[in-house]
Every structure is written in structure tokens, then in C-alpha cells.
Amino acid sequence: MLKNLLIALFLLLTINSYAQDDPFAEVKEEAQATLADVDVTEESIAKSLGFDWPVKDPEKSLQDIKKETDELIAKTLKEKFPEKSLESFKAELEKEFPVHKIGDQVSVTFKFRNGSKTQTGPFKEITSKSLNISGIIVPRVDIKESRLISFDPQLRKTYMNRVGNKRFYDYNTERTILGETLAAKYKSAPYKKAGYIFKDGKWTKPSVILKATYDEKMAEIAKIKEAEEKKRKEEEAKFKLLTKSEDGEIKKILGQEPKHVYIGAGVLLLLILGAAVMKK
Predict the structure, then answer these.
(1) Total count of domains within the chain
(2) What CA–CA distance (Å, rounded) separates 179 from 40?
(3) Contacts 24+ apart (CB under 8 A), 18-26
(4) What is the pLDDT of residues 41-75, one digit of tens each?
(5) Using an 8 Å Cβ cutoff, are 129 and 139 in contact?
(6) Residue 188 lies in a domain
(7) pLDDT higher for 157 or 20?
(8) How many angstroms separate the CA atoms of 105 and 123, rounded?
(9) Is residue 33 situated within a structural domain?
(10) 125 found inside a domain
(11) N or C: which end of the chain has fewer CB within 10 A?
């Protein structure tokens, strides 16, 4: 009998302890502390991203900026390297190197001993090995190719094609390099100036980045809440299981419903213990 009474007294004190203290207080405090540390206001997120508040999106569209940039590059290229055809380079060469005919008064500079010499006079003859200027025979090998083409039509044609193609290629190479340089220069500056931010390989409005970051934070908080709620329910289930077990034990000992035990059980136990002492 005494053993049963002691068990009942222990169980009653345990239940009273649960009744007086909130069994979920620790869980709630942890959840509140966790959530309190997570700042999810758009303003605070904007500031953490380095944005001004309120966030302002660019007035110009990406398409408008690209169009303006392309027009600026095209204008610069046109000024510095206007488009020119291969034929135009060959035409310039024709002007640069005049054609001489038999009887024309000419001057030819050629290698002579350790230096050079210039012969002036009428152009009389050309052979596969020399020129005849005013009766003076000048070896072809001593005359620069760029000068000799004025006297030799076949050599001229070959030279014009080779040099014309090279000048055309060099010109367009420089033009391409300038275009690439300008493209690199205007790749970022106009977009940054307009207020765009480069993220994930593309220029993006600040408001889009802000919303994405905000949604990420909200998703994190949702996970936190879900985890805390799961933990709270697990604790609540443990508490209900313990209460059910303890109430059943009291009911078994005292023969009363658990809801009537909490107030009168203490008094009843004291009376029974007092009676037992008096019998001794």
C-alpha cells in the first residue's frame, strides 16, 4: 500500500511540474531567436546588396543601350577607317606609281658602288636585264621593285595585286582591332552607368536581383519555420504520451479520472499518510 502511495505522489508531482511550466518554452524561444536574426525586409536586403533605397530601375532598356553603343562604334569606325574596297587600294597604287612610256623624261635612282646614283633623261629602252636612260644602261637588279614597275607592265600588274591585297588586308585588320577595342570599352560602362548590374552572365535590373534575393531569404525562413514546427510537434507528442501514461497510473491507484486528480490528490495523499502514521 505504501509503495503504491509513493508512486502516486511521484507521478502527481511530475504532472504538476508540467502543468506549471510550458514544456514548449525552450523550443519557442529558440525559434523566435532564430527568426529574429533573419532580416527579411526589402530595404535591409537592398542595403546588404549595396543598392540605394528605394531601389530604382534603369530608365533605358538593354535594347536601347545596345543600339546606342552599336551606333557609336559604327560612327567611330567610319571616321577613322571608312569602308574601302580592294579596287580602291589598287586605284591609289596606280596614282602612287605612274606609268612611263618610251621617250618620257624620267629620273631613276639605283645602287652604285657603295652608295646610290640618280640618272635623269629620256626613257629609251627596257629589257629583261636593264633600263636605258639617256644612253646609260642601268641593271634592273640595282633598281627597287617599286620604281621598276613604272617601266615594266607585267611586273607592275603582279606588284599591284600583291601590294594592293596586303594594304587592303592590313587596313581591315586595323579596323577590326579598333572595333573590338571599342566593343570591349563599351561592353560594361554604358550598362553600369544606366544602373544595370552584371549577374549570372547578363545585365539585370536591381529590382529583379532584389526580388530574387528576397525570395531566397523567405524560402530559408520557411525551412526554418518548418523545422521548428516539426520539432515542436515532436516535443508535444512526447509530452502527451508521458501525460497519458502518468494519468493512467494515477487512475489505476486512486480509481479516479485524471482530470479530477490534480487538485485533490495532494490532500488525499496527506490524509492517507497521516492515518497510516496514527495506526502505528
Answers:
(1) 1
(2) 46
(3) 18/239, 18/242, 18/243, 19/262, 23/235, 23/236, 23/239, 24/232, 24/235, 24/236
(4) 887 887 888 787 888 888 899 999 999 999 999 99
(5) yes
(6) no
(7) 157
(8) 6
(9) yes
(10) no
(11) C
